[in-house]
Specification:
With 369 residues, this protein is α/β, with parallel strands linked by helices. It has 2 domains: 157 residues, 3-Layer(aba) Sandwich (Rossmann fold); 173 residues, Dihydrodipicolinate Reductase, domain 2 (2-Layer Sandwich). 33% of the residues lie in helices and 29% in strands. The chain has 10 helices and 15 strands. Strand 9 and strand 10 form a beta hairpin. The protein starts with 12 loop residues before the first helix and ends in a 9-residue tail after the last strand.
Length: 369
């Protein structure tokens, strides 16, 4: 269902919700693989949504399976992933395992004819992402990636503001995502934390950057960077900076967008007022006779805080996935969305290994938005 030819376009959440309200059926069974952090949260939402007759939880760890049995007695726990794939009642699988296992598990599920939601990032390379897109199309399955922040109300509000022109032309975006831990075993901090910001920024911009440069350092594991700075070049003087760290004393989740008309700050850690819009800017006087007369005018206006009703983003994401499977829709964060982010991460990794040199982002796969 996800093609590379750009003929199909992602289905807005409102459209899938309307179709579900019209009476889409329940799924026979859904499986969740990986019961670490994200897996149990997916199971909680699936149980609350009552979207399937059966829910299966799969993990090799006996303690994690027992934990799920106690929390959700109606959920069947399995140790073998193969049993999940062999069960014909299972129509969809959520892969919430370590990043290095995303591709082989999603590949096996798609080959078995199951629709798949893969936690971020979709895969470890562009080649793997392209293969998953091909398999989904070939087997007429839904392929979706868990870019959770794209389902959050504040990010969707920012997208609405940008599309309406309220901020004017985007000059630059600056994003910081830092905290103390959690170190990942199979990926560096860029693949772990920057994935969120790359997905947010490419969604907001509506395209992948032309090039990316990345610098970082490893302090505890060789060639596993725990702090990194990415620069995304979108062309036409538009740039985005992403700072990510596992070694910061404070938990920071902040994005600043500077436009020609207004500026915006999005702080995901704020309990309230996550978005603040500043009516601030700079004006260049159009006429002056000498360099000494050249002046900039600074505008200081009001601060606007839009009211936002915010449901749990993961709940919205799970619901959208189930609706897409039931209705045969293309998800908002489909395989192409995953490919776009993986393409940026792959270029960033190459830049890291080459002293921070700018590397073109080799994104190809149909529509670039």
């Amino acid at each position: 269902m996800n093609g590379l030819d750009g003929e199909m376009h992602a289905t807005p959440i409102a459209d899938t919700r309307a179709a579900a309200a019209a009476g889409l059926r329940k799924l026979r069974a859904v499986g969740v693989v990986g019961l670490g952090y994200w897996g149990p949260n997916h199971i909680r939402n699936l149980c609350n949504l009552q979207c399937a007759d059966e829910i299966f939880a799969c993990d090799l760890d006996d303690r994690r399976r027992e934990h799920i049995r106690k929390l959700y007695p109606g959920v069947a726990a399995l140790a073998e992933f193969s049993k999940l794939l062999d069960n014909r009642a299972v129509e969809a699988v959520i892969v919430a395992t370590p990043v290095s296992s995303h591709f082989p598990m999603a590949q096996a599920a798609l080959r078995a004819g199951k629709s798949v939601l893969v936690e971020k990032p979709l895969a470890m390379s562009r080649a793997e992402a392209l293969e998953l897109i091909r398999l989904a199309r070939e087997n007429r399955c839904v392929l979706m990636v868990g870019h959770t922040f794209e389902y959050s109300a504040p990010v969707r509000k920012i997208k609405q503001l940008l599309d309406s022109g309220a901020l004017g032309d985007v000059f630059y975006i600056s994003s910081t995502r830092a905290n103390l831990g959690l170190f990942q075993r199979d990926v560096n901090v860029a693949w772990d934390l920057a994935t969120h910001d790359i997905s947010i920024i490419t969604m907001l911009m509506g395209r992948a950057p032309a090039a990316v440069s990345c610098q970082g350092q490893s302090h505890y594991r060789d060639r596993t960077e725990d702090v990194a700075l990415l620069t995304l070049d979108f062309g036409n003087s538009v740039v985005a900076f992403i700072h990510v760290s596992w070694l910061d004393p404070n938990k920071i989740r902040r994005t600043t967008i500077v436009g020609s008309r207004q500026m915006l700050v999005y702080d995901d850690t704020a309990a309230q007022e996550k978005i603040r819009i500043y009516d601030k800017g700079v004006t260049v006087h159009p006429y002056y006779d000498t360099y000494g007369e050249f002046q900039l005018s600074y505008r200081y206006g009001d601060i606007h805080v839009p009211r936002i009703e915010e449901p749990e983003p993961l709940k919205v994401e799970c619901e959208h996935f189930i609706d897409c499977v039931r209705g045969g829709f293309v998800p908002m964060t489909d395989g192409l969305s995953g490919l776009r982010v993986v393409s940026v991460l792959e270029a960033a990794n190459e830049s890291l290994r080459n002293g921070g040199l700018a590397v073109p982002v080799a994104f190809s796969g149909g529509a670039d938005a």
